[in-house]
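re the bet — no i am not wrong, look at it urself. input seq straight from the record:
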Amino acid sequence: CAATVRHWMHIARSGMAHQWQDCPIGRPKAVNEEYLDRLKELINQSPRDYGYSFRRWTVNWLNKHLAKEFGIELSNRHLQRLLKDMGLSTIPTRRKVNSPSRQENDGHSIFISDLKSANGSESNSFWLFNPSNMA
């Protein structure tokens, strides 16, 4: 872009071309290692330890709490991205249901085995049903 060319030509003419790395390009990073370490610490502790009434952190409440501590306000989406990059989440993991026969239940959460008949007998008799006899 023409404005960028003018900027760097001005830097070169003023004799500061050798200091080009002293002027970082882009938006400065707000999140540092201290912030990320504190985020890891908070996500592994209960919010009740910090005076909140709820049991699990949400991204919104983590963001509010960290904004109070560090004065850095991030979007919830950016904080969620940071958590994902660290392999963390505010969503609780589901526990697997152990089936009594130790067979794989194809990812379904209900496993039925060892059913007894209601009348206590183990007979394998069937009722015959013929819909053509119903008139």
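see?? The chain has a mean pLDDT of 79. told u. also The CA atoms of residues 1 and 7 lie 10 Å apart. so pay up
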